[in-house]
Design goal:
- 60% of the residues lie in helices and 16% in strands.
- It is built from seven helices and five strands; from the N terminus they run ααβαββαβααβα.
- Strands 2-3-5-1-4 form a five-stranded mixed sheet.
- Helix 5 (167-193) runs antiparallel to helix 6.
Length: 301
């Protein structure tokens, strides 16, 4: 009996050991499968986006192109001094003996430097002396020499010179313009393969927006290039006013006449306000002195 019990007990232990071995094998298989998936890498996804979820590839936003050997726009700004874009301006106020002769001399200076007169305005004061403002555009390399020549035509009363460095803005605008042109090219390619009318309209709307950006960026770049290539000089020329001494008699007569006119004006305004009241008072007096006695006589008779 004891031998049979020992046999049954051994079979029980054998089953338990078999179950434990199966659990260990199952866990090992799961761990091995997960290790293989990690070694293989993450699941692959399509990197081709679609235009509005309609099966058309979306226009790729091209990265900002960087010049060879340069990492950032800032490095280009610091390393290429010859490509810097600086807007130079100057303003001078000059007292001259003869306005017309000085103005002619100023124009000759500008013409010799390869520049031109962009704006000119002159007038005559109450004392018969001429004044005027002249705006000049000259090449940047002639900016300071031209100022030195202009100072020789008269007595400089004031002078102001300034410079605005727009290199960083110019580089940024150029990069954005190139990026917009790449988007435009990609949209045109998408437009060629689009078949659905709705898809065509969507692409055309996006294309119009990109082209508006291109036009705006091009205009700003052209403006900066023009301002950086040609400096602006504003010159104010004026003839000196005569220094006179007056006893003030003329001013006294003028003040007296102005006071007389003011009094007359006040009287006219007063009559305008009082006239309606005078009319009402006159009508009341007429009714009381003329009509009332007549009515009383008629009533008594």
């Amino acid at each position: 009996m004891s031998f049979v019990g020992e046999v049954i007990k051994m079979e029980k232990y054998t089953k338990i050991a078999a179950v434990v071995v199966l659990c260990v094998l199952a866990a090992s298989a799961g761990f091995f499968a997960s290790s293989l998936s990690e070694l293989k890498g993450p699941a692959e996804y399509s990197d081709v986006d679609t235009w509005g979820g309609k099966g058309l590839p979306a226009p790729a936003v091209a990265p900002i192109p960087m010049p060879a050997g340069r990492e950032t726009p800032e490095s280009q700004y610091t390393n290429a001094n010859t490509e810097r874009k600086i807007i130079q301006r100057a303003s001078l106020s000059i007292e001259v003996e003869d306005f017309q002769a000085s103005s002619d001399a100023l124009i000759k200076i500008v013409e010799r430097s390869g520049g031109f007169v962009s704006d000119s305005y002159s007038y005559v004061t109450d004392t018969g002396h001429k004044r005027g403002d002249i705006t000049l555009r000259v090449p940047t390399d002639e900016f300071l020499p031209v100022i030195v020549e202009i100072e020789q035509i008269g007595t400089v009363k004031s002078k102001h010179i300034s410079g605005e460095d727009v290199t960083e803005e110019y580089i940024d605008l150029t990069a954005r313009l190139n990026n917009s042109k790449r988007q435009e090219k990609r949209l045109l390619e998408i437009l060629d393969i689009a078949e659905d009318v709705e898809d065509v309209l969507d692409v055309e709307r996006e294309l119009e927006r990109v082209r508006n950006d291109i036009e705006r960026l091009t205009g700003r770049i052209t403006y900066l290039e023009n301002r950086a290539e040609l400096a602006t000089i504003s010159v104010a020329l004026y003839e000196p006013e005569p220094i006179t001494h007056s006893w003030g008699i003329r001013d006294a007569f003028r003040d007296a006449f102005e006071a007389f006119v003011s009094v007359i004006r006040g009287l006219i305004i007063l009559v305008g306000y009082a006239l309606p009241l005078l009319i009402l008072v006159g009508l009341g007096w007429l009714f009381k002195s003329k009509l009332m006695p007549k009515l009383r006589r008629e009533k008594q008779s």
